[in-house]
Amino acid sequence: MSRTHGRAPAGRRHATPGRIVRAGRHAVPGPRVVIALLLLLGLVSVMLLDGYLRAEVGNDQRVRSDASSSEVPESVLDGGPFLSFEGGTAHTRSVPDKTIVLTFDDGPDPEWTQQVLDILDDNDVPGTFFLVGSMVSRYPDVVRRMVDDGNEVGVHTFTHVDLSYRSSSRITREIAQTQLALAGAAGITTTLFRAPYSSTNDAIDNYSWPVYKKLGAMGYTSVFIDTDSEDWQKPGVSKIVEWATPKSGKGASVLFHDAGGNRAQTLEALPKYIKKMKAEGYTFTTVSGAQATAADRSAQGVPGAGTATGDATRGDPDQAAHRPADTVTRWEGRALLAAVAVAEWTVPGLAAALVVVGVAVMGRFGMMLLLARRHHRQRNRGEFAWGPAVTAPVSVIVPAYNERECIANTLNSLAASTHPIEIIVVDDGSTDGTAEIAESLGLPHVRVVRQENAGKSAALNNGVRQARYEIVVMMDGDTVFEPDTVHRLVQPFGDPEVGAVAGNAKVGNRNTVIGAWQHIEYVMGFNLDRRMYDLLRCMPTIPGAIGAFRRGAVLAVGGMSEDTLAEDTDITIALQRAGWRVVYAEHARAWTEAPASPGQLWQQRYRWSYGTMQALWKHRGSVLDRGPSGRFGRIGMPLVVLFQIVTPAFAPLIDVFTLYAMIFVDPTASLLAWLAVLVVQLVCAAYAFRLDGEKYRYLLMLPLQQLAYRQLMYLVLIHSCVTAAAGGRLRWQKLKRTGTVGAPTPGTEVR
Predict the structure, then answer these.
(1) How far is CA 99 from CA 45, 53, 78, 96, 240, in A?
(2) What pLDDT score does 295 carry?
(3) Distance CA 269, CA 68 (A)
(4) Are strands 99-107 and 128-131 parallel, antiparallel or unpaired?
(5) pLDDT tens column, 193-243
(6) CA-closest candidate to residue 707, choices 677, 740, 737, 748
(7) How confident is the model at residue 327 (pLDDT cuts 50, 70, 90)?
(8) Which terminus in the chain has less CB density within 10 A, N or C?
(9) Which residues on adjacent β-strands are paired with residue 428?
(10) What single-letter DSSP state applies at residue 59?
């Protein structure tokens, strides 16, 4: 839709929501803009968190192999599976004979881990689970049960990456974030650590050795294995049991997996394995239990190969490796879990909403193309006519406030009209000599009516009362008409059902980037829309820059209302609810000066957005209207709400989700999907340009225009919603004009 700015002199009173005064130096209220930006920032943060939790940043799954271990002590490479650094020196411990430490990697998983815990409970056996922090954040209830059942937990990094590739700060962050997640989930931290992709001592190399020394200095015990079930290969239940069995009655740190894929074979093998090892006299314990037993035996002088017999021993909920998290850490952990919960629900929800919105938008594009084609063919047939030709004089109303730069061009263009007209300039308390300039031109059939400043709606109503003729044309004081514009604009009144006509507003100052963007928007977004709404008989807005009305119809509905900022939308809906038809005259062209700066563009779109909301709310009862006068409520209202309020609110998600998918999912497919949507928009825009006879070169600006406008309209919409929710009052916004726009002469090209 095309709108215009309102006007009032500086120093005027604040207005009610229907009346606005001029903006001060700060046209855009800072706090509301900040709220809009914070909402967008919050959305981006939630999506980044969700992507980070999925541990797919750049799909970096590098694993170092075949690196030298020349700097790693032989005692570590050949030592037991528990590595610590008491006093700064590396020490290893083995699992006592006839003792099994069941360890599980890569969880928690809501499906497989729960079943593993059930098996351990049924067999009264503890386990030590090395947890991925991102999974802990997503499934804290599983971890809480794990600890409450007497199992032990350790850190397996936050995103399951090979730490030998990471910086010191990244290593610290991986550990700290996992500890935070543990604190939030179970109220504990742990001193146990296992690195991804490095389950055995001989996997330590010159790159990972500094990592283990760093963690040792932080008080961590690094836990390796000496027996691997290799259940991740899914070799079959018997093989898993066989490979997990230690030889010669030795103790063992055994590796299973409770996440990372289908673990059905693991679940089948685990109870069989436990029963087998118990039958052979083995005891099951945790890492801390094994270390405590080894220390006791060492103090008693018992050889490490001594046999441990007896029943399986459940772990103590207060395991030695577990530390109660302090209050601050617990609350920080809970905050992390809360943020993760928000991300877990928000991102899929928004993705689903985007799919719905995307389908709706694509459907709208398809409908616009079909109906625009039909409209163009119907209205451009040689025999098409609205009825008897309209030749009677009409009144042209020009409301003006401080339009000294533009008023002469406007009136001179009207003076060249091929249709008989009277021109009524309603000067709304201008302080720059606008009225005097209009009078000094000495143009025929021009009347200047002065009034105290009361706003645009009051000026238009005054003009309607002053008009001598039944058909009135309304335009802005910064707009120029072509010679045949008025004649083309009023021809639809040959149909007695037509109560108002929307003209074709064109951007005159399209030689700048912002001007070119708006040119695309006017041709594609506004005029293609109007063709569709015309055929559907539910036109939402007659542009303030160029519109024509039956004078009696306007007076019958109460004139131009001051209840909303969008008086053009308000009067358009009111006329249709009164039973009048509103149509679009594509060949009646007006040239207007679009905002030249981002700030002015923001002011204009903010007023349009807020005013549209006001008008829709005012006419919300139209959804209950019946008969022909109810078409706007049944068809127009849902379309305007969906495509001028709902979809702009989701607009930034198109670009944000594209970036999200490119980083965390599939960059090629995501980029192709984004380009496919752009191509659809390009096709629609190209067809709109063809219908309007415009040059295609401006479409080169379409990709950047789409990116910029999506973000702008989102911020404007949020700004408007905040204003509406707070009951805020707006001021009239007088946009700066240069007066350089004029109607092109026939045969010339607009640049």
Answers:
(1) 47, 36, 19, 6, 18
(2) 66
(3) 36
(4) parallel
(5) 999 988 899 889 898 899 999 999 999 999 999 999 999 999 999 999 999
(6) 677
(7) very high
(8) C
(9) 451
(10) G
Residue 17 vs residue 433, higher pLDDT = 433
Tens of pLDDT along 656-706?
777 777 777 777 887 888 888 888 889 988 999 999 989 999 898 888 887
Q: Which helix (H) or strand (E) holds 449?
A: strand 446-451
Tokens of 126: 């503890």
Comparing C-alpha atoms, which of 214, 212, 265, 213 is closest to residue 243? 265
Q: Dihedral sign, CA of 177, 179, 182, 187?
A: negative
Enter the tokens of residue 366: 């398809």
Question: Do residues 599 and 28 make contact, with C-beta atoms less than 8 angstroms apart?
Answer: yes
Indicate the angle between helix axes 327-379 and 168-186, nearest 10 degrees: 100
User: Between 264-279 and 237-244, two packed helices, what is the crossing angle to 10 degrees?
Assistant: 50
Contact 592, 506 (CB under 8 A): yes
List phi, psi (to 5°) of 220. Answer: -90, 145
pLDDT at residue number 108: 95
Is the pTM above the cut of 0.85? no
Helices 168-186 and 140-148: angle between axes, nearest 10 degrees: 70
- Please confirm, yes or no, whether 160 is among the known catalytic residues: no
How many helices and strands, by DSSP H and E, does the chain display? 25, 20
On the question of pLDDT at 247 being above 50, the answer is: yes
Q: How far apart are CA 16 and CA 728, in angstroms?
A: 9
Q: Pinpoint the alpha helices (H) of 505-621.
A: 513-520, 528-536, 551-556, 567-577, 598-618
Interhelix angle 667-692/327-379, nearest 10 degrees:
30
Q: In angstroms, rounded to a whole number, what is the distance separating the alpha carbons of residues 318 and 322?
A: 6
Rounded to whole angstroms, how far apart are CA atoms 477 and 396? Answer: 11
Would you call the peptide bond into 543 cis, given omega within 30 degrees of 0 as the criterion? no
- Give the contacts of 80 (CB within 8 A, at least 6 positions apart): 92, 93, 94, 95, 201, 226
Catalytic residue among 5, 156, 160, 257: 257
* Whether 257 is catalytic: yes
DSSP state of 97: B
- Which one from 50, 105, 226, 529 is the annotated catalytic residue? 105
State how far the Cα of 281 lies from the Cα of 476, in Å rounded to an integer: 96
